[in-house]
Design goal:
Elements (H helix, E strand, L loop, with lengths): L10 H12 L12 H5 L13 E7 L4 H8 L1 H10 L4 E7 L5 H14 L4 H10 L11 H10 L4 H9 L4 H13 L7 E5 L4 E5 L4 H8 L3
Parallel strand pairs: 1-2
Antiparallel strand pairs: 1-3, 3-4
Amino acid sequence: MNRYYLVAIPAIITIVALSYILYPHQNQDNAKVTLQSLKQNGSPILGNPDAPITIVEWGDYQCTYCHAFHETSKDSLIKEYIDTGKANFVFRDFPLNGPDSVLAAEASYCADDQNKYWSYHDELYKNWAGEKTGWVNRNSLDKFATTLGLDLRQFDKCLGDKKYEQKVLDNQQFGEKIGINATPSFLIFDSKKVKQITGNQPFSVFQQVLDTF
């Protein structure tokens, strides 16, 4: 949503995340932010799970600039870094645009139940039609599921049961906890450092950051 660029570690990530990542505390009563927790609970990992670098996108399926990233930089990022094994990629939900964005995110995980998460993720952005314009609804989500050959009865039951609603809301809450406040936002990290990019940036910006690892 917000289109600006920042390559930095937000203060909360510096103080909280890296302190737990690099210097684990023994107090189990405190919620810990670790490299693992940064990529847990989101999408299936795209690429080699053992790649040395992880890219986590925090996004919203209705977000204008998330859609723009999907249409511009993402393919180059996958070709140059994900497919080559240099990095892997995780999507985590940050539904700033309200209930329809939550519903779209739920649908992506219902598709994941049939091993079609990334196909459905791409189908949502392929059919993007603006922010809060009503294009995300049960009929359109069923249409996307049918296009991908999903079992519609299973898919609809998953959505009707709100099986993944809490997962989506938990993703947003966790993002807020570590300082995410705009979409798309990207955390790029290895075992030693974390960097952030905010907004739909040219591939060259991602390349510049990734090549510092």
